[in-house]
Design brief:
about 350 residues, alpha/beta, elongated, about 40% helix, about 15% strand, 7-stranded mixed sheet, 11 strands, single chain, Dna Topoisomerase Vi A Subunit, Chain: A, domain 2, 14 helices
Length: about 350
């Protein structure tokens, strides 16, 4: 490919950009051609030629003069990228990007060793001048800072009980910073945590309970709601977060069941015809759902067992562990035995593939 340029320095930089985009390229295939129409003054042409001749003198490139007009350049061929870097006093993109990476890490308080795979992935991409995490350009220190701050905070569970923008403000000092980096942040998190591979950006954050707004809590059961009265929620009811503290349980349900996915929750509350208290977890529970878990746990007698039905994969087990840490009672896994997946010839299994069943209470 040959690029026409009216600015010699811009043309030489473009040559190096091309090499950084594909380091295995034969440098002699990278060429520029003077755009003399873009140089209206003779002084422009003289400056253009002078810079090229200086670069040729140090062995960085080869000038091919026109056979028709001996005082004009036909094209310029890259010869030695290292010499051109030195001539332009320009560091390779990889080196400049590494300097930015090290500076960002130096400002990150107590960086976790768990970041190592992520940092390695970024270095590998930036080393060859390629974007990391889909679109994080080499040397983008501002974006990298937000990503590393947020990833580290999530690994340390500092996002729990926070909405998306509150988390963003707490960690980055800006309510919008996380949303601007959501796609890249999602890819970074998927390198470190067993998250849904098909999820992107805000979907990844939502799977960790980070949502823009508090979500209604979906429940099945028999309740008394302050200011509303008694309600038999069958198949379900959706309550705003503000109503949770005013919720009391009528009678004694035989168990508390959380269900990870919406389709399975809807089937369970309609097909399992007992008096179990059922709550939709929604993946990693949002702040409102977490508040509901804690409230129900306090309201239920200690002997009422708690269960979680989720996907049979590492993500499903992480969600179960997360919920159990919010409860004062043990949480049993329901229909989540790995054997169920293996019986179908799979390593993992989404819960929607199974028909809902009531838990065994003995």
């Amino acid at each position: 490919m040959v690029k026409s340029v009216a600015d010699a320095r811009a043309g030489l930089d473009w040559m190096l950009d091309r090499m950084e985009a594909r380091p295995d390229r034969d440098p002699t295939t990278v060429l520029i051609r003077p755009d003399y129409a873009g140089m209206p003054l003779s002084e422009d042409v003289k400056r253009f030629h002078a810079l090229l001749e200086q670069a040729e003198t140090v062995g960085a490139l080869t000038i091919e003069w026109s056979r028709k007009a001996r005082d004009l350049v036909d094209r310029v061929r890259l010869r030695d990228p290292k010499r051109l870097y030195a001539f332009l006093k320009r560091d390779p993109t990889g080196e400049r990007a590494f300097a930015v990476l090290e500076a960002v890490l130096a400002d990150l308080p107590n960086p976790s060793s768990k970041l190592t795979p992520l940092l390695g992935s970024i270095r590998d991409r930036w080393a060859v001048g390629q974007p990391a995490l889909g679109s994080l350009k080499p040397g983008d220190g501002e974006g990298l800072t937000v990503i590393l701050q947020c990833v580290q905070a999530i690994l340390r569970e500092e996002h729990l009980d926070l909405e998306l923008r509150a988390f963003s403000q707490k960690i980055t000092g800006s309510t919008k910073a996380v949303e601007r980096q959501a796609l890249r942040l999602g890819e970074a998190l998927k390198l470190l945590l067993p998250l849904p591979e098909e999820a992107r950006g805000l979907e990844v954050l939502a799977s960790l309970g980070l949502l823009k707004f508090s979500t209604p809590v979906l429940l099945r059961g028999h309740f008394e709601i302050r200011g509303v009265g008694e309600i038999l929620a069958r198949p379900l009811i959706g309550l705003p977060e503000e109503w949770i503290e005013g919720l009391s349980i009528v009678g004694r349900p035989p168990y508390l069941m959380s269900v990870e996915n919406l389709a399975s929750f809807n089937r369970y509350v309609r097909e399992v015809g007992d008096d179990g208290l059922v709550i939709y977890a929604g993946g990693f529970p949002s702040r409102s759902v977490t508040a509901a878990f804690r409230h129900l746990d306090r309201a239920l007698p200690a002997e009422v067992p708690a269960f979680h039905w989720g996907d049979i994969d590492h993500h499903g087990y992480l969600i179960a562990d997360f919920i159990e840490r919010r409860l004062t009672r043990p949480l049993r896994h329901h229909m989540m035995e790995w054997e169920r997946a293996r019986e179908r010839g799979k390593e993992t299994l989404e819960q929607e593939a199974l028909d809902p069943e009531a838990p065994a209470l003995t």
